[in-house]
Amino acid sequence: MLPPELPPLPALTRAEGEVIDRYLEVLDLLGRINPARSGGTYSGLRAAQALVGKAAELRDALALMHSRGESELHSGTLTRALRVLDGERRARLVALPPPPGP
Q1: What is the pLDDT of residue 92?
Q2: Which percentage of the chain shows pLDDT scores above 70?
Q3: What is the pTM of this model?
Q4: 10-42: string of b/e by CB count within 10 Å (b at 16+)?
Q5: What angle do CA 12, 17, 22 make, to 5 degrees?
Q6: What is the C-alpha separation between 57 and 61, in angstroms, rounded?
Q7: How large is the angle between the packed helices 14-33 and 75-84, nearest 10 degrees?
Q8: How many CA atoms lie less than 13 Å away from 89 in the CB half-sphere?
Q9: Distance CA 51, CA 67 (A)
């Protein structure tokens, strides 16, 4: 049996796709750095070092959009793209885990 088919990505400009990709990479690294999650200091250190470069790539993608006159982020379209690309799960890794039960 095949896994369920993912919904198609919404139509994005190349620049929007680049912003989404870089944003998700930053989220993944922040999730690895999150001190509220288990992990070693070395893993967090490596993720923090990589974060610098990925944040610069995200900045550059946004700067390119701005320089092309794309002055607005279309949140509805970008939200759909983030959902298709598992953005909700990846963003949860950045948040604090729920408190332990009673």
Answers
A1: 93
A2: 98
A3: 0.86
A4: eebeebbebbbbbbbbbbbbbbbbbeeeeeeee
A5: 160
A6: 6
A7: 60
A8: 3
A9: 24
